[in-house]
Amino acid sequence: MRIRTHKRLWALGAAGFGLALAAGPAALAFEEAPMLQEKVKAGELPPVDERLPMNPLVLEVVEQTGEYGGTIRRAILGGGDQHNMVRTIGSDNIVRWDREWTEVRPNIAESWEVSEDASSFTFKLREGMRWSDGEPFTADDIVFWYEDVFLDTRLTPNKDSTFVGPDGPVEVRKIDDVTVEFDFRTPNGLFIQNLAYGFGYHPAAFPKHYLSQFHEKYNPDVQSLVDAEPAAADWIQLFNLKAGPMDTPLFWQNPDRPTLHAWHLTNAYGSTDRIVAERNPFYWKVDEAGQQLPYVDRITYDQVEDVETILLKAFNGEIDYMLRHLGRPANKAALTDNMDRGKYGFFDVGDLPANIMILMLNLNHKDPVKRQVINDKNFRVGLSHAVNRQEIIDLLYFGSGTPAQVAPREGSELYKEWYAKQFTEYDPDLANEFLDKAGLNERDSEGFRLGPNGERFTLVFLVADVFGLQYPDAMELIQGYAADVGLDIQVRATDRSRLIDLHTSNEQDAYLWNCSGGQADAYTTPICYVPIVSNSVSWAREWAAWGVDSNRGEEPPEAVKEIFAAYDEVKAASGPDELRERMQHVLDLSMEQFFTIGLVQNDPVFGIARANVRNVPNPLPIAGQLWFPAPYTAQIYFEGGDNLP
């Protein structure tokens, strides 16, 4: 690797770490799970040495080297709970964050080099690495994603900002079978960090040998496959069904799709009451003793109707490891009371996002009247002052949490008190004053405010019961606070999948959600500070599309253009001090615009692990697009002994 000046070291992450490991695995005598040994003996699999790459990744264990076998049992909600699987068996990116979330380390790529100006990045892949079906994984798979999926506007109309720089989309070039270059043509100092987060998974998630059959470029007879698929009208729909993004249900509804993850699905999400993921015999990581990972044979997800059913399963000892849906203050007392019965203990989770409850108003609304009102900052400030945040915290979260806007949290190097505290005072009189300033100063016979067109101004909030955050109950309270100041808010309950469909197609008035960006992830995933295309967050989707490609979406106002330009400057920063200074400028501009209305910053949450589940980190880092434990620790969990205090 070429030597860099100290000014560039911060951008390199841990590229050198991968080289330091290179000599380790070669000296190891590899071992495999008994269930795979049987398949080798039966001639169904090649020996483990032939299934691993030349330089497998060595993972450090948390407690001790593990034992093979067993099943980790979890639960999942139907319709839109795919991140339940993403966070446990998905999310192996080209590079990864270390377990403490302090530096970026090798993963699918065994090493990388960065140009002096941080505009191009060259990755060396692991020679001999294979997909879960045994076919080789090479630079051709990454080029397939780039040329035939990412650049094709029919398949990728909205390009993820991870792969778009100030000069437009990245250029990807194959150097040889195990070397690939990503070139942004201008500095992109945050690319390695972004690539290690959740949405950086795309380049290594599209197996060419499998998916090319659904692409017109490679299969002249693709129409026959379209005709055989009732849900597809053309090859584009067919391809999307078979190759949907991992953060959508489609990825998990195609168990035939090969993967690089530690486990692969044996049946489709939503097809049965139990989803089963079985170990990938070609997984490319080993422990320090040379044992091929993962330790656990399979992970199961019992599909249930509601969070209460998941709680009951935990009480009954039917959940082995889980934090999703369970780890919230409202559940702590009941889970504590049932610890002996369920034979589990607690672990801490550093889940500290920018805010856990945000009023996401659609600033790009298709209705001109609603757009005019929502885009008036006075309206958003008035609505903010109308909400009694402390009462929400006391009633729903037993006093656990802090009234706050969407902002970096105290302790972050980007924290400023005014970011978090502006407009958080519960003051109906002040709310009325600002709503009058927004032009909603006339009321109908029932006391509700009239819009600029003389008709009652009504906003419909979409709400899904997600994250264990009691959003439906919160929305009922918010509806009452709004009515007290003359705002008519209607609530439409839906499931997560339908909510995402509506807001990603720009069909919503508003909805309730959460947002990353409370810690170091403010630099890399500022999705509530800068309009960025996202499947989970939409408050200015048309501006976000324009920010990626000025020929798409809708040209934003000058103040928003200034924020886009300022964030481009963040990506081009030449060192950590300059990076922080430039990101602070982005936040100053964004907070002044007050795009979204935050309600609550949570206290740290928790998860549960059965007494015999080992190698569980405590605390577990997680925030927004840092999809833990999938990229690092899930593969080293194993069953054995008793870890209760």
Give structural notes.
The chain is of the alpha+beta class and 645 residues long. It folds into two domains: 6-58 and 82-260, Dipeptide-binding Protein, Domain 1 (Dipeptide-binding Protein, domain 1, Alpha-Beta Complex); 355-600, Dipeptide-binding Protein, Domain 3 (Dipeptide-binding Protein, domain 3). The chain is 31% helix and 18% strand.
For the record, what CATH class of the largest domain applies?
Alpha Beta
Question: Percent range for helical residues?
Answer: 25-40%
The CATH superfamily title of the largest domain: Dipeptide-binding Protein, Domain 3
Using the 3D structure, state the CATH architecture of the largest domain. Roll
Category from helices, strands and their pairing:
alpha+beta
Please state the oligomeric state of the protein chains shown: single chain
> Count of DSSP E strands?
26
Q: If you compute it from the alpha carbons, what radius of gyration comes out, rounded to the nearest whole angstrom?
A: 25 Å
**Average pLDDT level:** 91
Number of helices: 25
What fraction of residues sit in β-strands? 15-25%
